[in-house]
Structure formats: structure tokens, C-alpha cells
Protein 1
Amino acid sequence: MANKNNTTLYTGVTSDLPKRVQQHKENYYQQSFTAKYNLHKLVYWESFQEIGDAIFREKQIKAGSR
């Protein structure tokens, strides 16, 4: 997820992408990182069959250069 200027990024793992994107857009968790920085735009996603593979990929993305 990103803000409207693509200057702040968030990465995470979910089993229900449409629902999670909607939660971000509605600031469902008002104290969350995405609510604080208005991260409402989905800019990239990947699909995995195994949760362990998704978590591994999330860690790769977070360790990379922005």
C-alpha cells in the first residue's frame, strides 16, 4: 500500500486481499501505520499458495531498498 504521492510504503500478508484493502481505505484500525500515513492505494501484490512463502517474500521486500 502507498499514499497518494507514493512516498510512504507498507507491506503485509493477508488471506483476503479485497477485504484487507477495503479495511485500509476505511482506516478500520485507526491507530495503524496505514491510517496514520493515509496509505490507501494498492500498488503491488503477489499471490502464494503457502503462507510461509508469503511471509518469506514479505521479509525480502521489507529488507530491500526503497
Protein 2
Amino acid sequence: SDVDTEWSLQLTLYQYKTCPFCSKVRAFLDYHGLPYEIVEVNPIMRKEIKFSSYRKVPILLANAGSPLQLNDSSVIISAIKTYLISRRNSLEEIVSFYPPVKTVTEQGKEVLEYENKYWLMLDEKETKRVYPVKEVRVEEMKWRKWADDWLVHLISPNVYRTPKEALASFDYIVREGKFGTLEGLFAKYVGAVAMFFVSKRLKKRHQLRDDVREDLYEAVNEWVKAVGKNRLFMGGNQPNLADLAVYGVLRVMEGLEAFDDMMVHTNIQPWYQRMEEVIQKTGVAF
């Protein structure tokens, strides 16, 4: 495990358990055996993150004397990974290499984008150690971005594909999440109906096919093909950040029809099981 006895950062992850971006961060922290506490955020009131002007999850608070807030799942992963490899810089300094930039989407909405979020901030020697050849780094960055920009968008349309699936998904969300009793009931029925329609809109926005399963299967097989037959993981004998991202995203469908269908209709199973095993082996459960 990468963690030596000097690991002094106290980590607190603010999350919704069923959110793919949060799951990605957990997969990363678990694989590296980093201890962290979880604060489950109520998705309706969100009072657990009142302290933050950034209103999305995941948020990671890292405390090494003074608390430092990290936003955006890919920034969290890149910054903590950089910190694990390079003990030259304080985490604060590392985080400053990922400045938030306001941009406007095609829909005219103002959003925060983070510069360099798929880069690890390493010196030449460290880079050589982690990425012996340049292609390895390029490949990892490409597929991390793919997980965020494409794979994630296939989850909702697939788990809310039919009214029945939408209800099952919300049942799972309410069971795993933090809701009051009435709020949970309300969220389940109203949420399931709403998400069924939202997923239709997402389907249009991302130009998905009539049967969104086809897009999911194709994406997943594209990933398996990229890993190839000659390596256990994209990272070789151990998962790299792309492996952890893809696994983290797909894992949120576990227990749902979409997940079972994916296991049957694609070639993902062997890789997925290897990921599960390696994370259980290294991970320290807290």
C-alpha cells in the first residue's frame, strides 16, 4: 500500500452514495488504502455542505492542521495522487495547480471548469517513475476524460430507462441515501417519475439511441478493447486512474437491471471482477 506511517491527512468525503462521481473518488481512496470518513449529504436540503460555496458533491475536506477543500472528483483524484507520489509539495500547493475557471456551456449556463484536472503535477523524475513511456500518460488521461464526458452520461438513461427501472433505482437511492421518512417516500415516487422524463431529455441531449442499452454496451466494450487482452488492467498489473474511474462509475449500477444486463451482454465481467478483488485486497474499510 502507498500509505506510510506518516500519513497525517484526515480526509472527509461529502457524498451521495449512489452518485458516480462520488463512487469514483471512493474507488480511488479505497484502492490506495487511505482512511477517510464519509458524510452522506441529504440531496434535497444539502445542509451538510452549507459551509461550502461550491454546491456539488463530491467534496473532499483534507485536514492536516488546517482544513483544505477539494472540489470536483477528477481534481480530488489527481491532487491526492500527486500528493502520494510527490512529497515535495504541500497539498495546498498542489491544489493551487488546479484553478477553477468560469465557463459558459452551450446551454448558456455558467459552470466551473478545472484546468489540468487529468494531469498529475510531477517533476521529471517522478513522471518517469509513474509513466515510463509517454503513451501511458496520454492513454490514462484520455480514458479518465472519457469516463467523465461520456460513460457517466450513460448511467441515468440506463437506470431510469423504464418506469419500472426508475422506481427500482429510486428505491435503491432512498435506501442508500440520507432522507427523512416522508422526504424519502416523496423522493421515491415523484423522483422516479421525474427522472424517467429527465432521462429521456438526457438521451436527446447526448444523442443516444432509442435503446440506451446499446450505447452502454458499446461504450463498455470499447473500454474492454482499449484495455486489451494482454494486460490485466489499463495500468498493467495494477489499475491506473482510468481503471479506477471506469470501475467507480459502473459500480453505481450494481443491484439494478442495467448492471445485470451489462454483465451478460458485454465482455466487462473479467476486468470488473479483477477490479473488485484488487480493491478489496488493498482497501482498508472504515
